Amino acid sequence: MGAYVLRRILLMIPTLFGIMAISFAVIQFAPGGPVEQVIAKLTGQGGDAADRLSGSSGDIGGTNFDPAGGEGSSKYRGAQGLDPEFIAKLEKQFGFDKPPLERFFMMLWNYIRFDFGESYFRDVSVLDLILEKMPVSISLGIWITLLSYMISIPLGIRKAVKDGSSFDIWTSGIIIIGYAIPAFLFAILLMVLFAGGSFFDWFPLRGLTSENFDQLSLGGKALDYLWHLALPLTALVLSAFATTTLLTKNSFLDEIRKQYVVTARAKGLSEHRVLYGHVFRNAMLIVVAGFPGAFISAFFTGSLLIENIFSLDGLGLLGFRSVLDRDYPVVFANLYIFSLLGLFVSLISDLIYTWIDPRIDFERRDV
């Protein structure tokens, strides 16, 4: 197993390099970079990102500048009439005075040491920014994963036992409908119905806690926290449990038809003993081993739109705003961290397989 783990870790290096290289190349052709963001601010067309960087249109990067002054052409859209020397200082401030390859390898060298630099438009390091937003995304990821497994496993087992019955048919219909409805669309429906839209005003629309959270008792804090999470979790769990439910059902059906189950029943064991004493461990192998991957998926990808809809200040909302602002240090740091964690979680899932079922030996297979 040690040789297999070593091979997998070594394969992570070219995989991660490829992810970062492709993303970096795509970014080079994307219009509206950080320099253009500031230029747009100077010419009266900027948004929030340029506002946060500049503070005022006359002082950027410590350089006093009159946007009406200066002549010359520039490769940046909207930069006509701006002083080329100022544009050069702005490029240097963002690191764009170096060739793309040099910037790429400098970025990789810094990322290997987990040095992600500072945000372009926020006066804080990227790592501190990510750590600040992480509790919200961790809360969503943990609760989505736990709730989906708590629903999926009992439901999947029941569907396997009642395979072909009316219960199996109508629950499959509900699962298919739930899986087909996009989480963000269901979230908007919940917001309209229960969060002060057109009907009821029962749930809050912003944040994980209320403004008076610190003044509440311990029980009050727990209720307030769950009150804020009710709608986002409902929207996310709707489709999250579908795959695990069907996976659990199919795993149990496959095990139930095996000879050892027939033998156990022939010995007079109760159905409960057969299911949970013999079938459960073998059937749940693939489901339990997929737990880390399910958590990472819910943690990093499932909550992006939900965080935006319900104004939850987590990693999803941070990544979305960073892309809009062209805050490249935050964008690439998120991509690097998420990709690295995803690769390690894939390895952990394989190791869990071997821990649950020692018969599995990955060293005898090609990586």
Automatic annotation (TrEMBL):
This is Microcin C ABC transporter permease YejB. The chain crosses the membrane at residues 9-30, 136-157, 169-195, 225-248, 283-310, 330-356. Residues 134-349 form the ABC transmembrane type-1 domain. Pfam families: BPD_transp_1 (PF00528). It comes from the Bacteria. InterPro entries: MetI-like, MetI-like_sf. PANTHER family: INNER MEMBRANE ABC TRANSPORTER, INNER MEMBRANE ABC TRANSPORTER PERMEASE PROTEIN YEJB. GO terms for cellular component: plasma membrane. Belongs to the binding-protein-dependent transport system permease family. It is a multi-pass membrane protein. It is found in: Cell inner membrane; Cell membrane. It comes from Aminobacter carboxidus. The keyword Aminoacyl-tRNA synthetase does not apply. GO terms for biological process: microcin transport; transmembrane transport. Its main location: membrane. Keywords: Cell inner membrane, Cell membrane, Membrane, Transmembrane, Transmembrane helix, Transport.
